[in-house]
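Appendix B: complex inputs.
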Amino acid sequence: MRERGFTPDRLQFAWIWRAVWAACLLPLVLLVAGGLRDALGANPIEYITRATGDWTLRLLLLTLAVTPLRQLTGWHWLVRLRRTLGLYAFFYGCLHLTTYVWLDQFFDWPGIVADIVKRPFVTLGFAAFVLMLPLAITSTNGMIRRLGGRAWQRLHRAVYAVGVLGVAHYWWLVKKDLTEPITYALVLAALFALRLWHGHRMRRTLEVQTA
Amino acid sequence: MLIKRQTDIVPSEITPRALFDSRRDFIRAAGLGVGAALLGAGLSGEARAAGYGGQSLGPLLKSPLSTDEKLNDYKDITSYCNFYEFGTDKSDPSRNAHRMSTRPWTVSIEGMVQKPKTLAIEDVLKLAPLEERIYRLRCVEAWSMVVPWVGLPLSALLKQVEPLGGAKYVEFTTLADPKTMPGVRSAVLDWPYVEGLRIDEAMHPLTLLAVGLYGEVLPNQNGAPMRLVVPWKYGFKSAKSIVKIRFTDKEPLSSWTRAAAREYGFYSNVNPEVDHPRWSQARERRIGEFTKRKTLMFNGYGEQVASLYAGMDLKKHF
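Resulting structure:
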């Protein structure tokens, strides 16, 4: 596909990357600041669980938005931000899990295992986390080389499943007002639809060219 | 007669808008209070969203039914509430509830009764001496608080109407005013909010009709001007801002049961052995504490209420 619009040079890209990196860290900074100022409400542990979960999901959706956005804008350099976004999603996922295991359950392992087995929403959340692990581990350049581009790409398609599991995890835990999980689900569906639409268009172009 | 007290607003708290508004409310309420006092009507005024500075309810009886556990902060009790009529986030009620007007207020008692009646809140307050009842409150979401309610036994109100022999249940309907309650404009639950109790549960000495908190008029977000407190059941059974009470021979269909019958049963007694389908009820987090504590059967009120359920399978009748 041809290059369109804005393409940053080396220096500009370095600044964009730093800005993305700092923006991704901001929710954590705000959370810590809120904690120090005792501004997390009457139930701070619930607040931290919610915030880390929210940011895991948001960053996951942003990661999944990179490819459609690149296809729409022609900004191929966006791909180079994807790893940062994905690893930050994993980072907030780790914080979310740690909050649950440490602050919420206080290392009550039998209770945690019972939760994972018995409560579908915990099962889904835990499955999403387990699926993110190999993706995070194989995120380095060395691992991409070792696995080979094609195998690496196939493995990293698991991120679609992580997205679905993450949204379902949230959906299932909400007691009644589904506005927020529905919003996440719609965004996820839109991102999948854009991928399908783009794939379909590419095939059509190929058919026209080969005809 | 009511003893009024000045608001204690320290200079550092004056700036926030909510507090500024609440002070104006207080001045207005105090004005109304003086008028009402002159008419001998007793209590008047509005509850406020922010901090202390509410209207004192005067001398109160101390109840032997109170727990001596450590009280939760006024701020936590009034800022961390489920009151879906004002929004589904727990901070929504404290933000939005000031729009609800609680004077004048009447409650009608009807259905299978000898003498149906409509009472004004001022008359309700005169039915029995007000007492302070410090109860544990256990939310179905597995958090808990210790709350110093002020109120009177619900039975004092129910005795006014002489229920008919066939009546078995009491149904409570709460206010649903789309003009002042933003949550009612969305279809999260079927409005108005309906809850129910069996008559023996409703008449039980522990069942309180609360009109106050921390010695002051009940803040709107906590269910002003009158709400139920049924301390051995999950919090949602304790209907807030009640406008109608109906005696019936059929088990009332409460709003949460209608929304998800598998998750919210009619009885909803606090029971560590019966999990919510989506989370365990074995433990709870007391607001303000770091680690969870074990949940007590009937929220610790088993000695007083277990006999109500003798012979019932509480896993089936959850």
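The CA atoms of residues 54 and 92 of chain A lie 9 Å apart.
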